[in-house]
Amino acid sequence: MLPLLGTELRRPEDYANEKLEEFKKLFGTSPNQVHDARVELRKYAVVVEALYPLHMDFDLLDNSRGILKLLGKVRDYDVHGCPRVDREEVLRRVSARLPRLRRLPRLYGSRFLVAENLMRIYGDIPFVNDFHGVRKLLRRARFLAESLGIFNDSLKELVKTMGNERDRMAQEACQGKIPVLNLDVSRIKEIGRMEVREILLSDHEFRHIKQKLSQF
Q1: Which of 83, 122, 159, 181 is most exposed by smallest CB count within 10 Å?
Q2: What distance in Å separates the CA atoms of residue 140 and residue 133, rounded to the nearest whole number?
């Protein structure tokens, strides 16, 4: 079972701002610094995207996505060995964009909007059949749940397993091999959706979410 929420409800924008500060502390030029910083920035970016209807800051949304894409190129080269990139130049471009990353303000209705995003993911999972699409949906669900103060270790491990599989396949492709997926996507969808459902049924203030679940 998931732990009950405390008396002080977690605000998603506070979670995002904490992850932004962690990203700034961790960011550097070594492979480990790039990887660790990118993880924190992705958590920030997921919440920024989910809360876009409330803050309407397109530059913030676009810039966080852009930096993630640049760091992804460096990270893939560091881990897989291809495609080759000019690390110094790419990281210079990232550094130049950092001042445009800003903290989110206090946003009325942020918890409600994140909960609705989680409900949408729950509904979308059955209709996404490719491995990478499912992986991204479940990763997004994990971070959004954490922004509400809800932690699901099973979902975390599932997302980690999928990430490791993605890296293995990418490394094989870089070696000139034809990568073969070793995971059952249908089973992953089943388990992942079950964990997202558990998140949605946890102790939160949105009774309408639990009522909606009866429709599925």
Answers
A1: 83
A2: 11
